[in-house]
Amino acid sequence: KQFSFFDIPANTYNQEGTITEEISERIVIAPNPARNLIRVDFPASLEPVERQLLIFNTQGSKVYSVSLMEGETSKTIKLDHFSPGIYYLHVLDNKGKSEIQKFIIQD
Fold first, then answer.
1. Can you tell me the distance from the alpha carbon of 18 to that of 75, in angstroms, rounded to the nearest whole number?
2. 84: DSSP letter
3. CB-based burial, 76-90: b 16+ in 10 Å, e otherwise
4. Is the dihedral of CA 17, 18, 20, 22 positive or negative?
5. How far is the C-alpha of 81 from the C-alpha of 20, rounded, in Å?
6. What's the rounded mean pLDDT across residues 55-81?
7. Which residues contact 61 (CB under 8 A, 6 or more apart)?
8. Angle at Cα 48 formed by Cα 43 and Cα 54, nearest 5°?
């Protein structure tokens, strides 16, 4: 199923619809606010699973997506083609966990 930003619930749910453990407290987006790039870091202590990173603008349009292979612990994303503003990073893993974090792109 394809998700849009507005399909994402405020809580974190697994595929069966029950609330699951959040993964957010260990995910780091830096720098925030950003100008040219962001780096998304997952500590090595997190379970090594496949993840999908989706970026949505404030209108709910998906403006970027990338998949991470099992064991990847970071991803650098160039922001050259993004307009300044507020964006939402949605992280989905193949175990049904998801997380949303806000970041800002400055001029």
1. 29
2. S
3. ebebeebeeeebbbb
4. positive
5. 34
6. 94
7. 4, 5
8. 75
pTM score over 0.85: no
Structure tokens at 11: 């809580």
Q: What is the pLDDT of residues 12-42, one digit of tens each?
A: 444 444 444 555 457 899 999 999 999 999 8
Strands (E), the chain: 28-30, 37-41, 51-57, 62-68, 74-78, 85-93, 98-105
Structure token digits, residue 69: 């292979």
User: Taking a C-beta distance cutoff of 8 angstroms, is the pair 91, 26 a contact?
Assistant: no
- DSSP alpha helices (H): ranges in 32-107? none
